[in-house]
Amino acid sequence: MNEPKSATDLAFSPYCRRLASKKLTFRTTPPQVDRDVLDAACNAWCTRTMDAIGPDGDLVGVDDCRADRECFLPYGPQA
Fold first, then answer.
1. Which of 2, 23, 47, 68 is most buried, with most CB under 10 Å away?
2. Do 14 and 74 meet the contact criterion of CB atoms below 8 Å apart?
C-alpha cells in the first residue's frame, strides 16, 4: 500500500522519481518544470517498467507521472 504524499515530499519535485528521459540523465537536482524533463524529442519512460507505460498500465509523461497516481514515488528523503 502506498503512503500518503506529504507537502514536504512534493516540494522537491512534482514529478515521480521513476520518470526518466535523456535530459534527466544530466540533471543533478529534481526537475521542477516540464522543460527540466523533456528535450526536443519529448521521450520519457518509467524506470520501473522501462517502458512508456507505467506499472499501473497508464501512459508515462510529464502530465501523467504526478502525485495523484498510485505508483508515484516522490523525490526527497525516502523512509
1. 23
2. no
